[in-house]
Design a protein that fits this description.
Length: 80
Amino acid sequence: MYTTIQKWGNSSAIRIPKVILETVSIKENDAVEIITTDDTITIRKTTKKYKSLDELFKNYNGTYTCEEMTTGSIVGKEVF
């Protein structure tokens, strides 16, 4: 099957026919994973929608220290 990538807001999109989704048991609002390799895009159904906090912080070693950010000198009527 051939299709065309079309503009959708600030993104691009393709329409996936219902028969193809039914073939792979994917329906509207199912969570999917998008994987890219070289010139290939793979869309795979997943049961996981979001990473847990443990997954998000698994490589965090606790060494981050926040610092005050400077934006330069006042040049007009900025309000902070």
